[in-house]
Amino acid sequence: MGALGRERRVLAPLGAGHSNGEIADALHIVEGTVNAHISSILDKLNARNRVQAAILAYQAGLTWPVRHTQVKWHDPLR
């Protein structure tokens, strides 16, 4: 698995079930960037879908489990 870099920022909200639009809003980036990051994550983790990517990322210690709530997710790096 290659270095994930900026892509790691989308892993927690991805695993929590947030949509690409919600992730983009929370990270203050365009949805196309989120799409690109998720595609790259799927490739690097050899995941078939978002759920598998989230599970593999958690198992590899790249992210932590988060519950999807009504509270807007925020970027911990900001």
Features:
single chain, 78 residues, mainly alpha, Arc Repressor Mutant, subunit A, 0% strand, WH-like_DNA-bd_sf, transcription, DNA binding, Regulatory LuxR family protein
Protein described:
The protein is mainly α and 78 residues long. The chain has a single domain, classed as Arc Repressor Mutant, subunit A, CATH 1.10.10.10. The protein has 4 helices and no strands. The mean pLDDT is 83.
Structure described in brief:
The protein has 78 residues and is an all-alpha fold. The protein contains four helices and no strands.
Layout of helices and strands:
Blueprint: H1 11-15, H2 20-27, H3 31-45, H4 50-59
Give the low-pLDDT segments.
none
Q: What is the helix tally?
A: 4
Using DSSP, what is the number of strands?
Answer: 0
Radius of gyration: 11 Å
